[in-house]
Design goal:
CATH class: Mainly Alpha
Number of helices: 2
Number of strands: 0
Order of helices and strands: HH
Number of domains: 1
Distance between the termini: 45 Å
Strand content: under 5%
Radius of gyration: 34 Å
């Protein structure tokens, strides 16, 4: 019986480790997307302030056109990253649920193993007490 629980515990630990790795992978990707979004926003703000500075001092229309195209690109990229963030958030929650489920299963199997070990210990204790009782009865019965 103990072998069965040990095997189940190993399987559940492996499952939990795999769930943890998957969760960590999705979490790293989500954090990377947040970093990209922040960097994109920072670049957009810097470029906007640069355009304003250049416009005060005079700016060529071709330079303004290039900056406008780049700002447009940054805005488009920001929307793409936001969509990816939304989907990665859903995936992150899904992986979190899988991890929590794997942890619950591992704890449940661990608790079942403890209960089974307690039952075995109680059973052995009862058998030992019966054996001692039998020895006492036999000893008492042989002495007149």
């Amino acid at each position: 019986m103990a072998f069965r629980f040990e095997t189940l515990l190993r399987v559940k630990r492996i499952k939990e480790n795999l769930a943890l790795q998957a969760f960590a992978k999705v979490q790293r990707y989500h954090l990377l997307l947040l970093e990209h979004l922040s960097h994109n926003q920072e670049s957009s703000n810097k470029l906007t302030s640069h355009i304003l500075q250049q416009m005060i001092h005079g700016m060529k229309s071709s330079d303004l056109w290039v900056c406008q195209n780049y700002l447009s690109f940054l805005d488009h990229r920001k929307r793409e990253i936001s969509q990816q963030l939304a989907s990665s958030f859903v995936e992150l929650n899904r992986e979190r649920e899988k991890l929590l489920q794997a942890e619950k299963e591992l704890k449940a199997i661990g608790r079942l193993k403890e209960i089974e070990l307690e039952r075995q210990a109680n059973s052995e204790k009862i058998q030992e007490m019966r054996f001692i009782d039998e020895i006492a009865i036999t000893k008492h019965g042989s002495n007149p």
